[in-house]
Design goal:
This protein is α/β, with parallel strands linked by helices. The chain is built from 15 helices and 8 strands.
Length: 344
């Protein structure tokens, strides 16, 4: 199958390698000329996953039309902040009848809509369907063929199952889930919790504290996602608790690493400076707060993180505020359905 990958960051590069090893014809669009040269002439991406020797046959291009030509599936692998913009750019050359699969985890920061919705709006009638891939999948490990599992979700169940067969391999097991709201919300929200988890590492706190944060973060994620129309059971799966665990504990997690820098006393600007990769949780928290206010949902971890990012709270003050919240029964977790505001 001919597959186009739009975006040659870490995840896009890892996905190119995975698809090429699975026998697909892969073209990748990259904005950076040095990436195009590196992939085509040296078989390496000089900016992302630099140590990865790419399988033969991957063709990189700065020309979107060339990269997308005759593709049957288009993989969107650009950060959430630019997903809509790049989808708009791709729309003029999008191969009619192809499906789109989004890898980014976040919200459209302008509209607060889920990314699959934003992509569908930009691609319009040209796209046969939009799906999302989400799970505990650090690019560094998928690129090394470390056994992993993930979820592909779409409102079109037949499309999700077709993509499941295309993207599965002996080391990359793909499940399907029809709850695309829950799958996308889990992927976006875990980055918020992971920044907070990293802050605990920077403060030098222990395993008890982090386990508490992850558990309460999962409850917050499910409460928030249910308010947007998700099935709360989705958050017990790979795109929920699975992705949450790996992002909160892994050395590969840039969201956790960013939080650790905050916990050690850096400002958000200092912690972000010099990174070539996007810390998705920084952008997701703004959308989450707006959506939560619209839905009337309490999300105290996200609210505390927003205070830290805006310079209104220190990391330890955020933690103290969470620990001092009103005491309650653990089962006191209302699930919200069908709020009147438009779904993102």
């Amino acid at each position: 199958m001919r597959i186009a990958v739009v975006g040659a960051g870490s995840w896009g590069t890892a996905m190119c390698a995975h698809l090429a090893l699975s026998g697909h014809e892969v073209r990748v669009w990259a904005r950076e000329p040095e990436v195009v040269r590196g992939v085509n002439e040296e078989g390496r991406n000089p900016l992302f996953l630099r140590d990865l020797e790419l399988p033969p046959g991957i063709v990189a291009s700065q020309d979107m039309e060339e990269a997308l030509r005759d593709a049957e599936v288009v993989v969107m692998a650009v950060p959430s902040r630019w997903t809509r913009e790049v989808a708009r750019e791709a729309a003029r050359r999008f191969p009619r009848g192809a499906a789109a699969l989004n890898l980014a985890k976040g919200f459209d920061y302008r509209s607060d809509k889920r990314l699959s919705v934003a992509i569908g709006e930009e691609l319009g009638d040209a796209v046969a369907g939009v799906a999302a891939l989400s799970g505990p999948n650090h690019a560094e490990e998928v690129a090394r063929q470390v056994p992993s599992a993930t979820v592909i979700s779409s409102a079109d169940v037949a499309l999700a199952r077709r993509l499941q067969r295309v993207f599965s391999s002996p080391y990359f097991r793909v499940y399907t889930n029809s709850d695309i709201i829950g799958v996308e919300v889990g992927g976006a929200y875990k980055n918020i919790i992971a920044i907070a988890a990293g802050m605990l590492d920077g403060l030098g706190l222990g395993d008890n504290t982090k386990a508490t944060l992850i558990t309460r973060g999962l409850a917050e994620m499910a409460r928030f996602g249910s308010a947007l129309g998700a099935n709360p059971m989705t958050f017990s799966g790979l795109s929920g608790v699975g992705d949450l665990i790996v992002t909160c504990v892994s050395r590969h997690s840039r969201n956790r690493g960013f939080g650790e820098s905050l916990g050690r006393g850096m400002t958000p600007h200092e912690a972000m400076e010099g990174s070539v990769m996007v810390v998705e949780g920084v952008f997701a928290v703004e959308s989450a707060m707006r959506l939560a206010r619209r839905a009337g949902v309490e999300i105290p971890i996200a609210e505390g993180l927003q205070g830290v990012l805006e310079g209104k709270l220190q990391c330890r003050e955020m933690l103290e505020g969470l620990m001092a919240r009103e005491l309650k029964d653990e089962s006191e977790e209302p699930l919200y359905h069908g709020f009147s505001a438009p779904r993102p």
